[in-house]
Design a protein that fits this description.
16 helices; globular; 3-stranded antiparallel sheet; mainly alpha; 378 residues; binds coenzyme A
Length: 378
C-alpha cells in the first residue's frame, strides 16, 4: 500500500530513469559520458559533445561541420528574433531574461538535432544580448563561419577572443554538458514525458537551473572569494557562515561523496590557461579556500563528506574567460542544454508519463473513518 511505503524528501537514491547518456559515480568520483571519462572529453569542442550526446558517437569531420553549421543557423535565427523579444530580454536578472527569451521561441515538432541547435543558438545570442543591453551596447550579429564557443565570446565582447580563451570556454561547455539526473535534467524529462515540446521542457529546466542549490551557485562562489579576501581570513569567515546557518557555495553534492571529477577538469583547464599566460586573479585564493572549507566542513559534519563540486572552479574559470558573474548561470545553460536535449529525446522514446505518488498528511473529513489509505494512494 502506498501509504506505508518509506518516504525520503528530495527523491534521494530513487532511480527515475534508465539512461545511456551518463554515469555519475558518487563514491568513486567518476563521470562517464556515453562511454568516455569526462577527463578524455575536456579538450574537445562544444560541437563534439553535441554530436556525442545527440547522435551517440563523437562526430567525424563531416558531421562535426554539419553540427557547427546547425548551431550557427540557430544563432542567426535567434539574432533575427531579437527585435521581437528585446523587451523580454530587458530584465534585471539574466536568468529571468533568458527564460523569457527562450519561452518566446515557437515550439516546432522537429528532430532533436534541429531543436538542439535552435535552443543552443538562442541561449548564446540571448545571454550576450542581455549583457550588451546592460552596458548600453547593441547586439552583435552572429558570424556563421565560426564555431559555437568562439562566436559566443564574440557575441559578448564584439571582437574575436584569443584562442586559449575559446579553448577554455569549450572545455567548460563540454565538461558541464551532461550530468545524469540533475534537477534541471529531471525537470526537462518530466515535461517531455507529457509529450509536450522541447522548448517547453527547456524553459522548465531553466527555471530549475536558476536556483542556488543547482546552477545558481558560481556567482555566489566569487562573492564568497571576494568576501574572504585573503587566505588568512578563510577559516574564520567560513566558520562564521556555518555558525549563521548558511551553506558554503561550491561545496557539497547530492551524489558525490568525494571531490567532483569536474572540479579536477576545470582546475586543469585553469592551469592550462595559466601556462599560456592567462592567469586567474582568484585561482590561488580559491585553492586555499577549498582546503580551508573542506577542513571546516569536516569538523561541522564529520559523517557527511562535503567536498568541492563543479561550481567552485566554474566561478574561477568563467571569471578568467572574461564572463561577468551575472552570466555564470546562463553560460551553464549554454552547455547543459546539449544534455537536456539528449534526455528529452531519451524520455520521448520511453513515452511513459512521469507521475509519482504522494503521501497525504492533511486532515480527513469526519466521514472518512478508515479512508486514509485510499487518500494516501491518490
Ligand atoms: N555548506 C554547509 N552545509 C552543507 C553544505 C554546504 N555546502 N552542503 C550540505 N550541507 C549540509 C546540509 O545543510 C545538511 O545539513 P542538515 O542535515 O543539517 O540539513 C547536510 O550537510 C547534508 O547535506 P547533503 O544531504 O549532503 O546535501 P544535499 O544533497 O541535500 O544538498 C547541495 C546538495 C549541493 C544542494 C548542497 O551540498 C549545497 O547546498 N551546496 C551548496 C550549493 C552548491 O554548491 N550548489 C551546486 C551544486 S553542483
Amino acid at each position: 500500500m502506498h501509504g506505508t511505503k518509506p518516504f525520503r524528501a528530495g527523491l534521494e537514491d530513487v532511480i527515475v530513469a534508465e539512461t545511456a547518456l551518463s554515469l555519475v559515480d558518487g563514491e568513486g568520483g567518476r563521470l562517464v559520458v556515453r562511454g568516455f571519462a569526462i577527463e578524455e572529453l575536456a579538450a574537445l569542442r562544444f560541437e563534439d559533445i553535441c554530436g556525442l550526446l545527440w547522435d551517440g558517437a563523437l562526430p567525424g569531420p563531416a558531421r562535426w561541420e554539419a553540427i557547427r553549421r546547425g548551431l550557427a543557423e540557430g544563432r542567426v535565427e535567434a539574432h533575427a528574433a531579437l527585435a521581437r523579444c528585446s523587451a523580454v530580454l530587458d530584465g534585471e536578472d539574466a536568468m529571468e531574461a533568458l527564460r523569457a527569451g527562450i519561452a518566446s521561441l515557437h515550439a516546432q515538432g522537429e528532430a532533436p538535432f534541429r531543436t538542439g541547435c535552435r535552443l543552443a543558438g538562442a541561449i548564446a545570442v540571448f545571454l550576450a544580448a542581455w549583457q550588451r543591453g546592460r552596458l548600453g551596447l547593441a547586439p552583435v550579429a552572429p558570424d556563421p563561419t565560426r564555431a559555437h564557443a568562439d562566436d559566443l565570446l564574440r557575441l559578448l565582447s564584439g571582437s574575436a577572443a584569443p584562442a586559449p580563451i575559446v579553448r577554455g570556454l569549450d572545455s567548460y561547455l563540454v565538461t558541464i554538458a551532461e550530468h545524469g539526473m540533475s534537477a534541471s535534467t529531471f525537470t526537462a524529462r518530466v515535461v517531455a514525458s507529457t509529450r509536450s515540446d522541447a522548448v517547453s521542457a527547456c524553459v522548465a529546466a531553466l527555471g530549475s537551473l536558476k536556483g542556488p542549490l543547482h546552477g545558481g551557485a558560481p556567482g555566489p562562489v566569487l562573492d564568497m572569494l571576494d568576501a574572504i579576501g585573503s587566505e588568512a581570513n578563510a577559516t574564520r569567515w567560513l566558520r562564521g557562515e556555518l555558525a549563521a546557518g548558511r551553506r558554503i557555495m561550491g561545496l557539497g553534492h547530492r551524489v558525490y561523496r568525494v571531490r567532483d571529477p569536474r572540479a579536477f577538469v576545470l582546475e586543469r583547464a585553469l592551469a592550462a590557461l595559466e601556462s599560456e599566460g592567462v592567469a586567474s586573479r582568484y585561482l590561488g585564493l580559491a585553492r586555499a579556500v577549498e582546503g580551508a572549507a573542506v577542513e571546516v566542513l569536516d569538523a561541522h559534519r564529520p559523517e557527511r563528506k562535503l567536498r568541492t563540486n563543479v561550481e567552485f572552479y566554474t566561478a574561477v574559470l568563467l571569471d578568467v574567460l572574461g564572463i561577468p558573474r551575472a552570466l555564470f548561470t546562463p553560460v551553464f545553460a549554454a552547455g547543459r542544454c546539449a544534455g537536456w536535449l539528449a534526455h528529452i529525446a531519451e524520455e520521448r522514446a520511453v513515452d511513459r508519463l512521469i507521475r509519482p505518488r504522494q503521501r497525504y498528511v492533511g486532515p480527513l473529513p469526519p466521514s472518512f473513518e478508515s479512508g486514509s489509505a485510499r487518500v494516501a494512494a491518490g
